[in-house]
């Protein structure tokens, strides 16, 4: 980790956060800006925001997990021991089990929820078929890798060839 990033990062963390009843240790709560779901956002480089909890876990693991689960159910928490590498399906199962609804997946570019044009969908799929990773395409389009995975595997936007 770049030292200046570490200094900037930990300055925004309250290491005396609340302790959830089912946890034995207290949360380290992110004090910086958060997205609408309460996840901490941290500027890793000019114009590039990343999820704060994804960063702390990746610093501990030495690689970036595709999905990160909060054992403490506190989205603002960045304490590595409260985080667990997960998979998309585990995260979804966890969200259902805890009564949270995962985000709806757009069904086509004519949907009111649609974020992408047909041209962008075609571009994503051609990038992917040329060997670009889902994570890299997701970063380019400022969306999640899960979303790109749905698109390139034609689980969504099926009406676009
Ligand atoms: Zn926590």
Q: Tell me the radius of gyration.
A: 17 Å
Please trace the helix and strand order, writing H or E for each element. Answer: HEEEEHEEHHHH
Strand arrangement, major sheet: 1-2
Whole-number tally of structural domains: 2
Span from first to last CA? 42 Å
**Quaternary organisation of the protein chains:** single chain
Indicate the mean pLDDT: 83
| CATH architecture assignment name of the largest domain | Alpha-Beta Complex
Percentage of residues in DSSP E strands? 5-15%
Q: Structural class of the secondary elements? A: alpha+beta
Low-confidence stretches: 101-113
Bound ligand species: zinc ion
Q: Main traits of this protein?
A:
alpha+beta, Homing Intron 3 (I-Ppo) Encoded Endonuclease, Chain A, 2 domains, two-stranded antiparallel ribbon, binds zinc ion
Write a structural description:
The chain is α+β, with helices and mostly antiparallel strands and 161 residues long. The strands form three sheets. Strands 1-2 form a two-stranded antiparallel sheet. It has two domains: 3-97, Homing Intron 3 (I-Ppo) Encoded Endonuclease, Chain A (Alpha-Beta Complex); 104-161. The protein starts with a helix and ends in a 9-residue tail after the last helix. A hairpin with a 2-residue loop joins strand 3 and strand 4 (48-51). Mean pLDDT is 83; it is low at 101-113. It has helices spanning 3-10, 52-61, 88-97, 118-129, 134-140, 145-152, and strands at 13-14, 29-30, 41-45, 48-51, 67-70, 83-86. The structure holds zinc ion. Zinc ion (ZN) binds next to loops. Residues 27, 72, 74, 77, 79, 82 line the site of zinc ion (ZN).
